[in-house]
Specification:
This protein is α/β, with parallel strands linked by helices and 420 residues long. It is built from twelve helices and 19 strands. Helix 8 crosses helix 9 and helix 10 packs across helix 11.
Length: 420
Amino acid sequence: MKSQEIIAGLDIGSTAIRVAVGERIGTSEGKDQLHIVGAVEVPSEGVSKGSVTSLENTVSCLSKAIEKAERMTGLPIGSAWVGIGGSHIIAQESKGVVGVSRSDGEIREEDVDRAIDAARTVATPANYEILHVIPKGFTVDGERGIKDPVGMTGIRLEVDAVIVQGLSSQIKNLTKSVYRTGIDIDDLVFSILAASEAVVTERQKELGVCVVNIGASLTSLAVFEEGDVLHTAVLPLGADHITSDIAIGLRTSLDVAEGVKLGAGTALSESVGRKDEVNLSLYGAPEDERVMRRYVAEIIEARVEEIFEKIDEELVRCGRSGMLPSGVVITGGGAKLNGMLDVAKKRLRLPASLGIPMGVSTVIDRVKDPAMATAVGLVAWGNMIARTQGRPKLGSLFAKFAIMEDLRGGIVKWLKALKP
């Protein structure tokens, strides 16, 4: 065994803060293996819809989560890859065009860097900061669809890129919360992109796949095709909306509604017998009250169908409705609801599967929970960025991010400048 490197992923959600800790173990064969040694979850306060609403509460919960992770692993956490989400995140297309610098026309990595840098000059909305510049494909002298132009010959190099941006104030509030716990930020990563790295394979990304993360108050999605990010979106709907619907429909408290949803709920009303009943007192109601289980299922089904209709609208927007061979992979805490996959198949007209973190070794059962996908994905993201520092060919999304390391350095310095 060679030296071990600790990588931490921090997923800050509206109802829970999740921390995953991995070891990047170098073996004698020269291969790297990612082993998850810790995965913890603590209730979240001070965060709503991906945005910090109370700095003190958020810092307190973050401190508890990090302390719990350090106790579990016996390892100090000095820095973490932090996921960022929320309805303020936007993505837009951009194009960068440069002339090849060498007299013989051979394209070098420096030319690729300049093209990506040119794509960053897109007009950003006021008070927004660029989080990611993701190259989708290159064009050399009008020849489109080139994945890796390095070494080719040409005069004009173009890059089509996706620019992911976030509201400056929300980025500052999030980074300030993390820094106040005493740990550094390796980088901010758009949460749905991190989750995608944990639950889908490169093969699925090549064929075409949609990754959906159903959180408490938001649903995020990312569409991949030919290994590139085709489209991303954040929808203001989540699992808490289902709970609220049940509470209103049954005229009960949110706590009882949450218990009913998890204990007796399903998104497939047809699978419930017409005479099946649910006793609300079993889920914390003060009195013995019985309701029809099918009625509960119909409430859930209506909201779940709305969520998938909104997702299909996004697929229509990018021209991939019902046209993704690898289907849809659903992850996040809301994905565990019974009948969720059946509704997805029916509404999206696509194969649907549950997104469970894969590609890592672990002995911790919690890692296999869809709710941990983003935290584990952040660890995988950090691991792959570290592995691709040798500037390999542009065969994967991570390699593209590694080539942009110098460009990304600016935002890292900006984040550190916020540290008190």
